[in-house]
Amino acid sequence: MKPAFIITLLVACGWLCPAIAGYGCTSAIFTGKVTADGRPLLWKHRDTDDMNNRMAFFHTGKYAFLALLNSSDTGRTAWTGANSAGFSIMNTASYNLKDDDIEEMDKEGELMYKALSECSTLAEFEAFLDSYPRPMRVEANFGVIDAQGGAAYYEVNNTQWVKVDANDPKIAPNGFLAYTNFSYTGRFGEGMGYIRYHTAMEIILPQASLRDITPQWIFRHLSRSFRHSLMGIDLLDDRYAPANASGWIYDQDFIPRKSSSASLIIQGVKPGENPEMTTLWTVLGYPPVGVAVPMWVKAGGQQVEMLCRSAIPNHARLCDHALALKSKVFPLLRANEKKYFYFPALHNKSGTGLMQQVAQVEAAIFDCYYNSMEKWRNTGIDLKELKKLNAAAEELLQSDYLTIR
């Protein structure tokens, strides 16, 4: 049952709490009020202890869907995804919602897999949560958008859930919601990810006021941000870049971290548009050196193959390459040395940093699909044309991305 209390403006204005370190994710829902084309965007920057991720297509229930998996996953789990009805879901772990001593938790992946199979709208997801067996064995913030304009987070523990509506101006007056690893209705001052949360808010608020947020902007300014709100620095700003120092930076509380394994942006549709145009922009591996490639549920198993299972058991080639590049950024292997990364390997004044090279490839990928996507919004996805575009993208990735060393 839903608790009766109301979420306040604390959600949009920023909750000032102590900074706590730990594994987790950074995420946001952007309503059409603040995006460049009026379509909602669901962003998840994933942090986990399983670095190798891949994408997979499923049609095991009412709706077909695409989902992000751990490459080692063999069961029915999904860590972010979208289905054929335009229903999309992701989660961030919460560390201040659980109010019992029940063990065997962390079943968020199973819940999301089932939701993608069965739900088409926020209302159906709410009914799904009401009927879900207790204890639910989750402690998480689930971000959801649908093809009817719905956009909300759901703060869920073993027995109850609370909806935080991104379309409610009293809750989200700035047109978006950001989440890390605490819940607004949870225990005050507990949880994780407060520094990342404030960093994200500092970056998003000025751009939201311009109503010009795009997937490209999110990848560039959030998934690959090296701003730190507590220290008041931005490594991508020449005033703070370690150009004359050793270049070694301690990996703590930036949005992209050594534990980051993927970054996905699900670009939804406007009410009345064909939900098949729901687009999953997907970066696998360490996001600063990964490349975004689009996917659509309608294409079924005919996606860009490098995002999905390859000849190496269960691995995706793009993820494997991103992890190889990541090893250049985190080359130290002894004791606490592993916690430091070499920033000039990512970005430098000569323009040869891995992140700078990848940016050029990613821009070409976006250009490859842009005109067709605009046409498909009126005509529907042309699968023959998409097959050709995917082949062109794979050639580009083979020649320009997989050759980056």
Q: Can you tell me about this structure?
A:
- With 405 residues, this protein is an alpha+beta fold.
- The protein has a single domain, classed as Penicillin V Acylase, Chain A, CATH 3.60.60.
- The chain has helices at 10-13, 108-118, 122-131, 194-210, 215-223, 317-329, 343-346, 354-379, 383-401; strands at 26-30, 41-47, 53-58, 65-70, 80-83, 88-93, 140-145, 151-156, 161-165, 176-179, 227-228, 233-234, 248-250, 260-267, 279-284, 293-295, 340-342.
- β15 and β16 (293-295) form a beta hairpin.
- α8 (354-379) packs antiparallel against α9.
- The longest helix has 26 residues, at 354-379.
- It is globular and about 55 Å long.
- The termini are far apart.
- The relative contact order is 0.15.
List the helices and strands and how they pair.
Elements: H1 10-13, E1 26-30, E2 41-47, E3 53-58, E4 65-70, E5 80-83, E6 88-93, H2 108-118, H3 122-131, E7 140-145, E8 151-156, E9 161-165, E10 176-179, H4 194-210, H5 215-223, E11 227-228, E12 233-234, E13 248-250, E14 260-267, E15 279-284, E16 293-295, H6 317-329, E17 340-342, H7 343-346, H8 354-379, H9 383-401
Antiparallel strand pairs: 1-2, 1-10, 2-14, 3-4, 4-5, 5-6, 6-7, 7-8, 8-9, 11-12, 13-17, 14-15, 15-16
